[in-house]
Amino acid sequence: MTDCAPFIQPYAGISPFFASAWERAGRGSAVLGRATLGARATLGAYSVIRADGHFVRAGDDFHLGPHSTLHIAHGRFPCIVGNRVTVGRNSCVHACTVGDDVVIGDDCVILDGSIVENNVVIEAGSAVFPGSLIASGFLYRGSPAKPLRELSQGELQAHARAVIQSNLLDREEQPAIGRLPGSQISLHPAAFAANTAELSGAIEAAEAASIWFGTILDAGAGRIEIGFRSNVQDNTVVRCGKGGTVRIGEKTTVGHNVTLIDCTIGNASLIGTGSVVAEGCVVEDNVLLAANAKTEEGQILETGWLWGGNPARPMRKLDDAKIQMISSISAGYAEYAKAYKALQG
Fold first, then answer.
1. SS in 3 state form for 177-246?
2. Are 74 and 53 in contact (CB under 8 A)?
3. CA 7, CA 196: separation in Å to the nearest integer?
4. Of the residues 6, 77, 83, 253, which has the maximum number of CB atoms within 10 A of its CB?
5. Measured distance between the N- and C-terminal CA atoms of the chain, rounded to whole angstroms
6. Residue 81: pLDDT band by 50, 70, 90 thresholds?
7. Strands of 270-271's sheet, edge to edge?
8. Contacts of 154 (CB under 8 A, 6+ apart)
9. Angstrom distance (rounded) from CA 69 to CA 47
10. What share of the chain is helix, strand, coil (3-state, %, to 5)?
């Protein structure tokens, strides 16, 4: 792992606190706002700890893998992580409580209000759905994560070593922070692009749009368009692989650690944390794609539905509460963006 200093920034006048100097920090890592980290923290390349709408606390010997995210639920849930917790690459631990001696593998999602007890292993690719209880002493797998079996003696420590060793071997030089040479970046004066994001190619962001920390936007020979008051959250990857256009409509939220490839996203939709929208897919207006869901190539997600699963399928009609929730997230992120833009200059 490249040894760098993380990008550190206050939020609402409160700066992150480290109990001791970080053990290692990868290029492009960021710690923001009301975050408290214990001794000997390890932060992978482009990892993000963002404590704005609530606090984040992680204990001693915390390992956060490359392109992984810790975040909160605004005014509702903090993110609390215990001692000796290991998180793999491209995972999101969101607005939940994680106990001591826990291993969360690569490409995992832990969602709002969940409690992960002590001595747990959650295997790669798993999702812990909102409000779940993950009981002590078990190996968990799946989406939603279910107990597979009890952990054997020394198994948790072996999983932790394997995740950390894999993370240390990652090539952290691949992304380049900022706007790559030759790119055609057109950001409205009231749009926000975090300074640890990578922007490459032809990219347009409208008024009050926001592009967050660790995000990779690679338009290639194509084009990426982000509409009014839409947000592309931390560690999401957006790519134009075949020279087409990725369009994200107005007042839409693309959650943390999402992958979008050559697709179209409509207005007032929400693409859930850790989900994948495949090539040629069209997400219509007023759609909620659940966390950790995966679409098929060329799929059309029809308006007014909650879609989930792998492959994604319609689950139920959106009610007024869900529609209002999508709207409130978009509005909240527009306010976050104003605050961070003022700090970043």
1. CEECCCCEEEECCCCEECCCCEEEEEEEECCCCEECCCCEEEEEEEEEEECCCCEECCCCEEECCCCCEE
2. yes
3. 8
4. 253
5. 30
6. very high
7. 192-193, 210-211, 231-232, 253-254, 270-271, 288-289, 305-308, 313-317
8. none
9. 6
10. 10, 40, 50
The pLDDT tens digits for 158-196 are 999 999 998 876 544 455 555 666 678 999 999 999 999
DSSP structural state of residue 14 = B
Run of H or E including 332:
helix 320-344
Residue with structure tokens 């390890």? 42
Taken in order 79, 233, 139, 58, the sign of the CA dihedral is negative
Spell out the domains of the chain, with CATH numbers in brackets.
7-168 (2.160.10.10), 178-344 (2.160.10.10)
The helix (run of H) or strand (run of E) holding residue 54 is strand 48-58
Integer Cα distance of 17 and 28 in angstroms? 18
Phi, psi of 254 (to 5 degrees): -110, 110
95/13 Cα distance (integer angstroms): 21
CA distances from 173 to 5, 28, 46, 130, 339 (A): 15, 10, 10, 34, 29
Contact 89, 103 (CB under 8 A): no
Tracing tokens 């990578």 back to the chain, one arrives at 198
CA distance 343 to 345: 6
Q: How far is 76 from 157, CA to CA, in rounded Å?
A: 33
What whole-number distance in Å separates Cα of residue 206 and Cα of residue 297?
27
- Taking only the tens place, the pLDDT of each residue in 203-251 is 999 999 999 999 999 999 899 999 999 999 999 999 998 878 999 999 9
* Average pLDDT in the chain: 94
| Dihedral sign, Cα of residue 271, residue 227, residue 46, residue 96 | negative
Q: Are strands 115-116 and 97-98 parallel, antiparallel or unpaired?
A: parallel
Give the C-alpha separation, 271 to 268, whole Å.
10
Using an 8 Å Cβ cutoff, are 107 and 167 in contact?
A: no
